[in-house]
Specification:
With about 300 residues, the chain is of the alpha/beta class. The protein folds into two domains: about 180 residues, NAD(P)-binding Rossmann-like Domain (Rossmann fold), CATH 3.40.50.720; about 110 residues, N-(1-d-carboxylethyl)-l-norvaline Dehydrogenase, domain 2 (Orthogonal Bundle), CATH 1.10.1040.10. Helix content is about 45%, strand content about 10%. The chain is built from twelve helices and eight strands. It has an eight-stranded mixed sheet, with helices on both faces. Helix 4 runs parallel beside helix 5. The longest helix is centred in the C-terminal third of the chain and has 24 residues. The N terminus is likely disordered.
């Protein structure tokens, strides 16, 4: 893919103007962080009313996407999808030339690649990014943002991008890597949350507050975090012969977990696909292997 990134990238400074397009909860938080850091900030949204609060804090509310893009060398978009991003920017395509476009939205690798191509065709530099946290965390030192694209472009804008979160990571030059890793890492979120909600339903069914389990749940999540490096090593090596916990340990505990939930009147259908995965691992002769061997079951190996 040919890109304009080989051209010198202007260095950014604490006073570099920034434009933010897309003012949902996350986009508004991004713009607010730039304003708080002292960057001249231009904003635009299809629903103009969403810009009012930011304008009251000192942002310039552009009358059009084209005017918003023209106002700044660094253009941040925060729409729901890449299709929505390209649609919103279409009237401003000519204004993108020699600017850096940073997309901060979810989507597919294909969407990121198509948007990078579209940006290059319109003379813009491109970074694909994601915010790995909630809007309320934007601007905090430990908030993580992932970026991918030309390293020189990232390096030139890193000081400004760090306004949005202190833990910024450049993953590589392939422009889809940020959303790719968002999908890979984000796969943990819903199962973990549903597991917590299941536990909360179990506890409250006994008349106890869900808050009573939070300290123990935090410890449990911290324990899981502590063994992830070792599990990843097992997966990378393809060696599941020295487990922290075997597939059989999980298999043997499934019946009692289901029974406890049923006695509390809970819906356990969400657990069935997980239990089926464990049963398939046992059927493949993996009962004594590490639970990380479920990776091989998922890959169909």
């Amino acid at each position: 893919m040919s890109t304009p990134a080989a051209r010198p990238v202007p260095s950014t400074t604490p006073n570099t103007p920034v434009t933010v397009l897309g003012l949902g909860s996350m986009g508004s938080a991004l713009a607010a962080a730039f304003l708080a850091a002292g960057h001249p900030t231009t904003v635009w949204n299809r629903t103009a009313a969403k810009a009012a609060a930011l304008a009251a804090r000192g942002a310039v509310h552009a009358p059009s996407a084209e005017a918003a893009v023209a106002a700044s060398p660094l253009v941040i978009t925060c729409f729901s999808t890449y299709d929505a991003t390209r649609s919103a920017l279409a009237p401003a395509a000519a204004a993108l030339r020699d600017r850096t476009l940073v997309t901060l939205n979810s989507g597919s690798s294909q969407g990121a690649l198509e948007t990078a191509e579209w940006a290059a065709a319109n003379g813009a530099r491109f970074l694909g990014g994601v915010v790995k946290n909630v809007p309320q965390a934007v601007g905090l030192p430990d908030t993580q943002l992932l970026f991918a694209g030309d390293r020189a472009v990232y390096d030139a804008h890193e000081p400004v991008l760090k306004v949005l979160g202190g833990d910024t990571v450049h993953l590589g030059t392939e422009p889809d890597l940020a959303v790719f890793y968002e999908s890979a890492v984000g796969a943990t979120l819903l199962p973990a949350l549903v597991g917590f909600f299941h536990g909360a339903a179990l506890v409250t069914a006994r008349g106890l507050p869900a808050s009573s389990m939070v300290p123990m749940s935090i410890k449990w999540v911290q324990m899981i975090a502590s063994i992830l490096p070792a599990l990843a090593e097992e997966i990378d090596a393809g060696d599941y012969s020295r487990p922290f916990a075997s597939v059989n340990v999980f298999h043997d505990g499934m019946a009692s977990e289901t029974r406890a939930a049923e006695l509390a009147g809970l819906d356990t259908t969400w657990q069935e696909p997980l239990h089926d995965l464990v049963r398939r691992a046992v059927a493949e002769g993996r009962a004594e292997q590490s639970i990380a061997a479920l990776t091989e079951v998922l890959r169909g190996k």
